[in-house]
Amino acid sequence: MQKTSICPKYEFAAELLGKKWMGLLILVLLQGPLRFKDIKKEIPDMSDRLITERLKELEEKGIVERSVFPEKPVRVQYQLTNKGKNLEPVINAIQNWAEVWV
Amino acid sequence: MQKTSICPKYEFAAELLGKKWMGLLILVLLQGPLRFKDIKKEIPDMSDRLITERLKELEEKGIVERSVFPEKPVRVQYQLTNKGKNLEPVINAIQNWAEVWV
DNA sequence: AAAGTTACTTACTTTTCGAAAGTACATGAA
DNA sequence: TTCATGTACTTTCGAAAAGTAAGTAACTTT
């Protein structure tokens, strides 16, 4: 990310998407705001540890927003920011390719 | 890839792209056929070991074709198949997003 | 009071990666 | 002939990332 120089911005994005579970995680978040448990339900093979870790990463990069609702049992919700929602064409492109070639 | 079931084809693609260096590797291969040493030059931070490993993986999945030209010093060339070339929209989508949001 | 839910965290194992050196084959220079 | 250089890998080994399982804190339901 720091030295290779074809296109640093692309490299940032490729490194982000180039992490295990990121593609799936963003796909499910495109559905709308989800709670931790809902993400678990959608991606049962992804461990709690990695869900937490990836969400934190996406939050730090401004792609996901974490909201806490202090209801009776506290509710934590994750949703894509604009930056995140704009990844939809990427996800769609992957889906289209997969439809045709996988 | 076997159990999670949102969309197995998408998951296959996401897992492929979701590997370190894959995004960059495919990007540089979109330029046209390249030799091992050229890939090294384009992605200096990627180790020989991983270049070999990723290319082998892409070859097995029918995304890259490896050709050996028995010239004076043997020449080995890697190029995208149709399946691989059709990843261009995906790469472009990533690039567009990166341009705007990174 | 015991058991369950939610959103995590911690500890430990396994897998993957990175860095460096080594290999096989060939050409070219000293 | 010996040495250095180049290409395309392969091997080795320590470090980082991911997988697995169990634990925690706050609250709710039974």
UniProtKB/TrEMBL annotation, chains A, B:
Keyword set includes Hydrolase: no
InterPro entries: HTH_HxlR, WH-like_DNA-bd_sf, WH_DNA-bd_sf
GO molecular function: DNA binding
HTH hxlR-type domain: residues covered: 7-102
Keywords: DNA-binding, Transcription, Transcription regulation
Domain of life: Bacteria
Pfam annotation, one family: HxlR
Protein name in UniProt: HxlR family transcriptional regulator
